[in-house]
Amino acid sequence: MTKEALRTIDTLIIAFSANKPVGFMCIQDQKIEALYLAPGHIGKGIGKRLIRLAINRYKAFYIDVNEQNTQATDIYRHLGFEVFRRNETDSQGNPFPILCMKFNPNKV
């Protein structure tokens, strides 16, 4: 994510572990626009806490994910998201199918 893109984001949350940044999440208009964790910190519950924060505090009920990223898709489904639309291309028009997901509290 570029500096210019960060300037347009409503909310930027930085995740820390042992006083060091290990990830971030960007939220814009009830949507998680970006979620990143450093490789050594995946699978430790940080992403789950960030997503729950996005849902509970910021009412961010949407997220898009590359269809090929099955690990992320599985995590989002586990946390209550479901696919409501599939796009053949990403936002830049590249041939990477994108799954648009919405949080469903009945799936948790």
Q: Please describe the biggest sheet, giving its number of strands, its sense, and whether it closes into a barrel.
A: 6 strands, mixed
Which spans have pLDDT < 50 for at least 5 consecutive residues? none
Relative helix content: 10-25%
Briefly note the structural class of the backbone: alpha+beta
Number of helical stretches of at least 4 residues: 3
Strand line-up of the largest beta sheet: 1-2-3-4-6-5
Q: How many E strands?
A: 6
Q: What characteristic shape results from the CA principal axes?
A: globular
Arithmetic mean pLDDT? 93
What integer value in Å does the Rg equal? 14 Å
Query: What fraction strand?
Result: 35-45%
Distance between the termini: 30 Å
> What is the ordering of alpha helices and beta strands?
HEEEHEHEE
Task: Provide an overview of this structure.
There is one protein chain. This protein is of the alpha+beta class and 108 residues long. The chain is 23% helix and 38% strand. The chain has a 6-stranded mixed beta sheet, with helices on one face. A hairpin with a 2-residue loop joins strand 1 and strand 2 (20-28). 19% of the residues are buried. The model has no long low-confidence stretch (mean pLDDT 93).
Provide a concise account of the structure shown.
This protein has 108 residues and is α+β, with helices and mostly antiparallel strands. It has helices at 3-7, 46-56, 70-78; strands at 11-17, 20-28, 31-37, 62-66, 81-87, 98-103. It has a six-stranded mixed beta sheet, with helices on one face.
